[in-house]
Amino acid sequence: MTIFKKKGLAIATGLYWFLLLYIVAALVWWFIALQQQNRQMSNYKMMELKADDPDYLNKIDAITKDERGKNTGYIGEGITSLLVIIIGAVFIYRAVRRQFVLSQQQQNFMMAITHELKTPLAITKLNLETLQKHKLDEQRQQKLLLMTLQETERLNTLANNILISSQLEAGGYIFSKEELDFSSLAGNCVEDFMHRFPGHVWDISIEKDATVVGDTLLLQILINNLLENAVKYAPKESTIRFKLLRHRDSVEMNVIDEGPGIPENERKKIFDRFYRIGNESMRKTKGTGLGLYLCRKIAADHHAVISVTNNATAGSNFAIHFNA
Question: In angstroms, rounded to a whole number, what is the distance separating the alpha carbons of residues 253 and 151?
């Protein structure tokens, strides 16, 4: 969050607490003033009574009861008003703060999406111009083509994430449920990443005949986003492990990298929409904050649970459990 945003949030928070304390103070003053007025009215009524009145004691008792009744009413009204103020204050505070956070996340998303669109387009254009203007040997041509395909796939993944995220949020995505060969689907996704990122060491363990009931496209996006996340944060030439285990009543998938890992206090936040660790303006890693959000959303739609833990050596272990 920028300094300007922080100052704006601090000013808004300070003004909010000032107004809240002013309203509570006004309520307390109103309560005290009404009690004093009630007491004075009772005193005036008693002063008008005559001691030789046969009904003197009964009238005093009635005035006292009336004073107590009004005080009880004032207390009830005061407590009710205070509770309404507190409930409203909590609701407004949470809503406004959530709006500030959402606004900042959307700003970060726009910064990230601009960078994500601009970079692959610039790289693709440069590679194609190089191929057009220079006669390169076969090896360099293949290298440039591979880089261009990787950047094109990044654009395709980005477009899919934005489109699917929007459709899932709006409820416009038509979810298909069919029994599919999850082993084959996962194998195809991993094979594609192995071809696109040959610089990494890939440790693959996929048990055959693992079946899952769900949507093929969404599950493919789920696997690709986790693999993309591992490639993004894992050092070059490090090992990325992919495991698919078939249990009696469930299917378990693990994507394990050797990157910097995720702090424990961030492990729940990373699945929030637009959320990314660190300062967006100083970030070096690519991404929009939609990938892991989509993973959690897709997993939940398939009655699966996604979690993240530390890798045994270094990095992260993303695990998904599909119930049969």
Answer: 27
